[in-house]
Amino acid sequence: MRAAGGARVGVDVGGTTTRVLVQGAGRRRAEVGSAPTPDTYDALLALIARLVADAGEQAIGGAGCGVPGTAGSGGVGFVPALPFLEGRDLAADLAGVLRAPVAVANDAQLALLGEAREGAARGRRSAVLVSVGTGIGGAIMVEGRVFPGAHGSAGSWGWLPAAGAAPDEVHGELEQVASGTALSRQAAALESALTAAELVEAARRHDHRAERAVAAYAARLGRGIAAIASVIDPEIVLVGGGLSEAMDVIGPAIAESCRRFASPDGRKVPVVRASLGPSAGVVGALWPALGQGRRRAGPGATDSTTQAAVGRREGQ
Q1: What is the mean predicted confidence (pLDDT) over 44-64?
Q2: Same domain, yes or no: 80 and 31
Q3: Is the domain of 265 the same as that of 284?
Q4: CB-based burial of residue 86 (10 Å sphere; 0-12 exposed, 13-18 middle, 19+ buried)?
C-alpha cells in the first residue's frame, strides 16, 4: 500500500554531488536535480529544500534519503566522506525542512533497492551491489529484501582484506587497492602522469601500457568480487559507482579473477554493470518515501522502521 497525498522525494547525498528526484501524482517524475554537496550541515539542508522546491511540487508526503555511511535510529554514524553529518539526526532535521516524514539509510543500500525495483536486479530474489567510486561500498539483497545489518553498514566491501594494503581506521584494505582513488594513484604514477579517466580511455584505444595497468587494477577488484560471490552466493553481482562506466575495459579482468579465485558456485554468478547509473540512489530512495503514510521515519523512528522501509517489496 502506498501513502495517499503529496509528492514523494528521493534524496541521494554523495561525497561530491547531491541529487533529488521528486515523484508527483500519477507517478510522474521530475528530472533529477543535482548540485555539488556543500561542506556544512545547514547548507546541505538548504540545498535539499531548494532542489525539492525546484521540482514545483507544493505538498510533500514523504522522503527517503541516502547517505554515504551508516544511519539508524540514533542518527547518522560513520561518514568519512562527509564528517559534518556524523552524529546528526538527519531524518528529524530533514523532516522539519520538508514538513514530511523522512527515512534515512545507507546510499548503496538504497541504490541496490533502486536496481531491484527498476534496474538490473529486477525480478531477482538475491543480489549484491559493489559500488566503486572514490571508495568501495555496496549492499546485499536476500530473499527480496535489502539487508541493512545490525549497524546499517552491511555491504561495506571496502573492508575486505587485500594484499598490498595496510591497516587503516578509515579506509579498508580492498578500498585502498581497488577503489577509484587507487586507480587514480596508479594512473598518476605512470611516466605520463595520467588521470584515471585518461588511463581508461588509453586502454580503450589499446595502448598496451594502459591496458596492463587497468588489468592489474581490475584483477585486484575482481579478487574481492570473487570472494563476495563465493561467500554470499547471490543470483547476480552488480558493479555500480563511477567505475561502472569502465566495465567495458575492467570487466574481462574481473571475470578472469572470478574464474581463478571464486568457489565453484561463485564462478557461476554473473557480474554485470548496474543499469540505473548515477540515478540509482535517488530511485531507490523513492521507495521508502512511498511507504511513509504507514511507516513513520524521522523523529522517533526506530531501526526496524527504517529497515522495513528499505527492504519492503512491492505489494507487501
Answers
A1: 93
A2: yes
A3: no
A4: middle
